[in-house]
Design goal:
About 10% of the residues lie in helices and about 50% in strands. The protein is mostly beta strands and about 120 residues long. Strands 1-3-4-6-5 form a five-stranded mixed beta barrel. It is globular, with a radius of gyration of 16 Å. One of its GO terms (molecular function) is single-stranded DNA binding. InterPro entries: NA-bd_OB-fold, Primosome_PriB/ssb, ssDNA-bd. Homotetramer.
């Protein structure tokens, strides 16, 4: 039996997606989604009840995210959790959990304006 690490996030981008090209020519978009938990809890303090999730979207999905999403865009992200682990030069163990998106639903689509030089 395979293990499962699937997640669904519904929230807003904290900044514009960043596009990168990695070794081998694959394109990658990275962005952070803020999920507000206090919407269902009237007693919660809004600033204390927000989680931030780092998301990566590959190839065409990532290209679409860069083209159509911007800071504040509402999205629903579906994907897998992935933990990266490494050691610092000082020997300290570090880790980070990211979401690798399989689907990104654009809940508030507005095409990003072309930047004029």
């Amino acid at each position: 039996m395979k293990n499962l690490s699937y997640i669904i996030l519904d929230g807003n981008l904290t900044s514009d997606p960043e596009e990168k090209t990695i070794a081998g020519g694959k394109s990658l978009a990275q962005f952070t989604v803020a999920v507000n938990h206090s919407q269902n809890n009237p007693d919660a303090k809004e600033k204390d009840d927000v989680s931030f999730f780092e998301v990566e979207a590959w190839e065409k999905l990532g290209e679409n995210c860069v083209e159509y999403l911007k800071k504040g865009s509402k999205v629903t992200v579906m994907g897998n959790l992935k933990q990266n682990r490494w050691k610092t030069p000082d020997g300290e163990n570090k880790s980070r959990v990211k979401v690798t998106a399989s689907t990104v639903r654009f809940d508030s689509i507005k095409k990003r304006e072309e930047k004029v030089a």
